[in-house]
Amino acid sequence: MKPRISMITLGVNNLEASVQFYEEGLGLPRMDSPPEVAFFTLNGSWLGLYSRDALAEDAGISPEGSGFAGIAIAHNVDSEAAVDDVLKQAVAAGARLVKPAQKVFWGGYSGYFADPDGYLWEVAHNPLFWVGPRDEGL
106: domain range? Predict the structure, then answer.
């Protein structure tokens, strides 16, 4: 297998609310798609939003479950100030601040927010792992 992530699909409880959060609140560019799914262009991959029940059915598993899902999506930015800005933008769009931005043990600066369905996003500045100037904001 060649290492690559093409798409991250989140099973959401309210597609309309989640689309509003990601498109209007965070400013992600939405692609044309059928009404039962939403796709957003990321830098080299895509984010998909799909009904939690339908996604679980597609995978052949139960949609029941709560608490920590064992995954966090990371978004790296070019400065500590950019971490603060993205976290503020997410909270203003309806996210819940889970962990305020702070210096972290690995030498960077990061914080976490949860989207309307509770999916964790880490917003981080890692001076040793910055991907470059083509990435602006979230």
Answer: 72-125
